[in-house]
Amino acid sequence: MVIPINLIQWLLISSAFSISSSRLVSSFSSILQQNEFLVKVLATIFILSLNLALAFSFK
Description:
single chain
């Protein structure tokens, strides 16, 4: 089975995004401690939509 390079690229980009965005979430949550849950939900939705956009751009 040959794994397409696009898939590997997408996995690398999305994992890098997840790491950097989790750092963003932690810095946001320290600023907005009372709204921590909301910030995490918004960040998760943002990450998911970016990953979907990346997945479709590689097809």
